[in-house]
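**Backbone shape codes:**
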Amino acid sequence: MKRVITFSIATLALCSLLRPAGPAVAQSAAPNTLSDAEKAAGWRLLFDGRTTAGWRGFGRETVVGWEVTGGELVALGQGGDHANDIVTVDEYQNFELVLDWKISPQANSGIFYNVVEKGFDRIYAGAPEYQLIDDHGWPEKLEDWQKSGANYAMHPPSTVVSKPVGEWNTTRIVVDNGKVEHWLNGVKVVAYELWTPAWEKLKNEGKWKDFPGYGTGRKGYIGLQDHGNKVYFRNIKIRVMQAPAPAGPRPPGEDWVQLFNGKDFTGWNKIGQEDWQVVDGVIVGKAASKAYGYLETVKDYKDFELHLRFKCVGTGNSGVYFHTRFAPGTVDVSQGAQFEIDCNVTRHTAGIYGFGKGWIVWPAPENEAVVRQNDWNDMLCIVRGNRYISRLNGVPMVDFTDPHAPFLDGTIALQLHSGGEGHMQFKDIWIRDLSRR
């Protein structure tokens, strides 16, 4: 017996209202624009709808094999083997990314994140990929981990919700301190956590077992793939989520003394003509003459543990000097070395430079990306005689014994490097004197 079921318009409307929905995805009134609400929430466009500004080729400065037409960023499918993959000019660590895409028949593409270029000749060898593919018209059987929304070759989507060829899909990717979510058309299809034992096991047993650098970037560029097929993108927007600073202004343990009181420069001397101020409990050092400038402790220290937080603003770099002396009346460092501070990745933050030798020791390359741009960083500097140890945002960076260390005591100094356009910020500076132990 056939049963005929009818629905009224009111019933259909009610069903629509009761259907579970995914999180609200940022929407603007017109393609490739931001609403006032989106701007207020911190969203910014990665594609202006007219040009490829803000993008470049992976491993090069120009964009090849892409065009902008009708407000769409189009991979022309001429690259093959990823030769024309593109990446953002800027790097990102914790973010929410939203974009629309549609695909041509039997096409294959992807969205990469935490893209690192140094040491990689192809984008996929190092970066996780949000898979895009023609699920409905692919000529061969697809593995689950190949379907749209997958973390390619790692985590399959929970369901297939991609639309047919020629229709727009909306992707949302959330990366938050290693926790990752893939959303497709309002449905969360993948959730996983980077760098856990489970993730490492999956990596080492699958496609990426012969790619030791895969997924090791702690931050990086956003990438779009040209896999030899036409693919279309629009409404590419991102919202950066600030990484939380480590909890608590005082380090754990005993015998810590506040080196900066949060109010003024008691216990410190200014060296040079640069502008040092205390603003809302933060030391702000600004480039004034673009010469070297320092903020030096009044006291000398021999063996110590120093904890501080720093933020890089603008293009300048900095450092935490130790065992320091200045030539009288100058900004010339006559003795001392520094724990480097430079918030550009691969600039060896928390490595050791100085004593007239140049670079003494760099951090391990795989740890370079732990530095946070445009956010607070937590650094621990330990000096025990000629042994130098550092940790950055909880990650061990260097542990080096210098057999030729020329100096074993002196002041501590915060640096403003010459030529910088921006400024440095410091707070929560604590010291534990180990010389008395």
